[in-house]
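User: I'm curious whether this sequence folds into something compact or stays loose and floppy. Could you predict its structure so I can see for myself?
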Amino acid sequence: MNREEQILFNHLQDLADTCYSRNIPVYTDFLNLNEQTVFLSRLPEFSHVRTVMDGGYEGAERKIVCFLPAYEENLSSRPMTPVRIRSSAGKFTVPCTHRDYLGAVLNLGIERGKIGDILVGEGQAHLLCMKSMANFLLENLTSVKRNPVSCAVTEFEELAGRIVFTELTGTVASLRMDSLLAFFMKKSRSASASVLDGERVFVNGRLCASHSFEPKAGDVISVRGIGKFIFDGVSSSTKKGRLLIKIRTYC
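Assistant: Here's the prediction. I'll summarize afterward.
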């Protein structure tokens, strides 16, 4: 571990110990993929409490680690809430990207760890945030890019319909990670090897640097700075021995 990772691990230990000694639920802020890897790599050291990782919806990238006392079988209350950000400019709405929404939120002085994933739609976005930040967002976020916006707390169920995938099929020589990444990125094997060596690839939140690693159907693979996809497995093989695969990329 480097110094930053050690500081994070010490903080996680402190939270887990607080949960154990006071017998109360304790939560982290939203963790990025690198931070989740630090936690997951030392998971046995948190065996004295229950642990749950939650990002607000299936497939979320940024997640909160919840430390739960023994009496809580499952997470009974989420420390986060979804906020819908909607443009009020009507037909004059300027299209906004994930970067636009995130920039507008961070410009309010909110720390990145208080904000989870942002799901962008046409003229609106759904953002996950810590409950403690919800009222502040509702009162202070009034514009994104050049659009006047209004914010409202909404339900988690509303997120499900906001996750859009593009289905891709094609053939690969093998199920090695470097081969799958080359297909996903539409680049060479050497390019995919570069992102693996640069520690930019995560499988279900865990860092993956192995070129020969073979994911299972259902695994969520994230490439930092490029995107993420769900590997849906092999459907058949060609006469030349190549494998026909299907993936779903997050739009």
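Summary: The chain has seven helices and 14 strands. The first helix runs from residue 3 to 22.
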